[in-house]
């Protein structure tokens, strides 16, 4: 795997950090096998009168971005697994590990990557099932009809804290300074969501559940990983229960395409 291929995954993610949602990273020197899907032409989800058609349009719009990012993650994960059992690394390998460390907020030990570091990196560099990603997008954005989705391409309710970084919530409490992040397009919002779930300490339980499923050879499902989202909403367990129910109820939509 060439350096340009493995660094691409990190570079694509880095351009969508939620702290600076509209920033971009210069990746002109990187040549992916295929370009990311264009998610700039957003359907008018509110115009759909038939719920079934709206849900199908919503999934058709967002799922290519989810699939693309999961593929990038699997490429990076494969390289990490290979390097975890390598004793002598090339300079390209060192660059790759540095990118992973920066991206997933997992500093490398002074002596270099060791077994403990690789174990945690492999917990973070892993897929998020499309049914979970799309369910949360649907729930947080009202199937693409919310103000934040329409005006800021934010389908996941993600916050930012720099003045002007997004949209000010009309119901923001006194003394609060957060905004709802605005993104250039839906693809950046999806990347930011993946970063948030895969590196934020609040979702360590989700990553532990995912790692346990991998270790036991069981499928990684959205319904199982949803148990690790207690901190995603102030509502806690009721929010998790609703996400799991939505996954089951809308299964036919998540599997389309």
UniProtKB/TrEMBL annotation:
PROSITE patterns: PROKAR_LIPOPROTEIN. It holds the Pfam family Glucosaminidase. Residues 105-240 form the Mannosyl-glycoprotein endo-beta-N-acetylglucosamidase-like domain. Residues 1-20 form the signal peptide. Keywords: Signal. Coiled coil: none annotated. It comes from the Bacteria. This is Glucosaminidase domain-containing protein. It comes from Enterovibrio norvegicus. The lineage of its organism: Bacteria, Pseudomonadati, Pseudomonadota, Gammaproteobacteria, Vibrionales.
């Amino acid at each position: 795997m060439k350096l340009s291929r493995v660094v691409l995954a990190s570079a694509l993610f880095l351009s969508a950090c939620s702290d600076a949602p509209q920033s971009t990273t210069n990746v002109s020197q990187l040549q992916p096998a295929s370009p990311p899907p264009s998610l700039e032409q957003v359907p008018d989800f509110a115009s759909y009168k038939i719920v079934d058609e709206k849900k199908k349009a919503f999934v058709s719009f967002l799922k290519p971005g989810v699939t693309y990012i999961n593929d990038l993650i699997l490429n990076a994960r494969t390289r990490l697994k290979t390097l975890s059992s390598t004793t002598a690394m090339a300079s390209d390998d060192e660059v790759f590990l540095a990118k992973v460390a920066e991206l997933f907020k997992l500093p490398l030990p002074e002596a270099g990557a060791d077994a403990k570091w690789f174990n945690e990196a492999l917990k973070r560099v892993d897929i998020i099932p499309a049914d979970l990603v799309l369910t949360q997008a649907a729930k947080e954005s009202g199937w693409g009809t919310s103000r934040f989705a329409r005006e800021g391409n934010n389908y996941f309710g993600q916050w930012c804290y720099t003045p002007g970084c997004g949209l000010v919530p009309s119901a923001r409490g006194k003394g609060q300074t957060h905004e709802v992040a605005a993104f250039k397009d839906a693809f950046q919002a999806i990347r930011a969501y993946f970063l948030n779930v895969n590196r934020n300490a609040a979702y360590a339980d989700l990553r532990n559940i995912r790692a346990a499923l991998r270790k036991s050879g069981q499928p990684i499902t959205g319904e199982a990983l949803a148990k690790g989202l207690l901190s995603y909403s102030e509502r806690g367990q009721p929010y998790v229960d609703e996400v799991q129910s939505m996954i089951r109820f809308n299964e036919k939509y998540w599997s389309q395409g």
